[in-house]
Specification:
The structure holds 2 protein chains of 2 kinds. Chain A has strands at residues 4-7, 10-13, 18-25, 31-37, 44-50, 53-57, 64-70, 73-79, 87-94, 105-106, 110-114. Chain A is an all-beta fold. In chain A, the strands form 2 sheets. In chain A, strands 2, 4, 5, 6, 9, 10 and 11 form a 7-stranded mixed sheet that branches. In chain A, strand 7 (64-70) and strand 8 (73-79) form a beta hairpin. Chain A starts with a strand and ends with a strand. Chain B is mainly beta. Chain B is 0% helix and 51% strand. Chain B is built from no helices and 12 strands. In chain B, strands 2, 5, 6, 10, 11 and 12 form a 6-stranded mixed sheet that branches. A 4-stranded antiparallel sheet of chain B has the order 3-9-8-7, with no helix packed on it. Chain B has a two-stranded antiparallel ribbon with strand order 1-4. The chains are: A mainly beta, B mainly beta.
Chain lengths: 115, 116
């Protein structure tokens, strides 16, 4: 069982809907990430939070809104998405700054389809 | 800007044979880390092996080893004695050293198919 849990596993939403993706980690890590994985594209970094502070925002459209209420939880709020936003959204965590050889620990992802 | 290149979109290997998956990277940092991940069809990204830029020995982890050639900026993954369960996407990634040192850049991946 993964130490990083994402819900839901699958989500279908219309372009006018509002939904949220949830990520929870039980590894005691201080940094959490959102990545987008589209077909035939490398993983794209969206956001990085370190100790609940956003430290990276990779030019993501404002229709994606992250929230990190504490170091164990990360949300991605979605509204007025476009069909091209359909992708696998992966959450990851790692211990934090200074842990240079620590890998990212990923969840199973949320498969999002925008209709 | 950093970049990871994986030139093999797909690879086939016979069961029990060894296979090498290529990865080259581009960075001006002196300190960096290289990681390989496996992604089965279920979608989860599984960490396989790590190589630090200052590590003099090639990393090994069970059937996985890393052929690290720093001057050529390559970090190829070698899987020995392939198993059917090794069929998956494989991603090479690099962690930057500057700033928060928390950003990971991924290559486009190689799809490995192990044939019985």
């Amino acid at each position: 069982e993964t130490g990083v849990t994402q819900t839901p596993r699958h989500l279908v939403m219309g372009m006018t809907n509002k939904k949220s993706l949830k990520c929870e980690q039980h590894l005691g890590h201080n940094a959490m990430y959102w990545y987008k994985q589209s077909a035939k594209k490398p993983l794209e970094l969206m956001f990085v939070y370190s100790l609940e502070e956003r430290v990276e925002n990779n030019s993501v459209p404002s229709r994606f809104s992250p929230e990190c209420p504490n170091s164990s939880h990360l949300f991605l709020h979605l509204h007025t998405l476009q069909p091209e936003d359909s992708a696998l959204y992966l959450c990851a965590s790692r211990p934090g700054q200074g842990s240079y050889n620590s890998p990212l620990h990923f969840g199973n992802g949320t498969r999002l389809t925008v209709t | 800007a950093q970049k990871i290149t994986q030139t093999q979109p797909g690879m086939f290997v016979q069961e029990k044979e060894a296979v090498t998956l290529d990865c080259t990277y581009d960075t001006s940092d002196q300190s960096y880390g290289l990681f390989w991940y496996k992604q089965p069809s279920s979608g989860e990204m599984i960490f396989l092996i790590y190589q630090g830029s200052y590590d003099e020995q090639n990393a090994t982890e069970g059937r996985y080893s890393l052929n690290f050639q720093k001057a050529r900026k390559s970090a190829n993954l070698v899987i020995s004695a392939s198993q059917l369960g090794d069929s998956a996407m494989y991603f090479c990634a690099m962690r930057e050293a500057g700033g928060y040192g928390q950003n990971f850049v991924f290559g486009p991946g190689t799809r490995l198919s192990v044939l019985p």
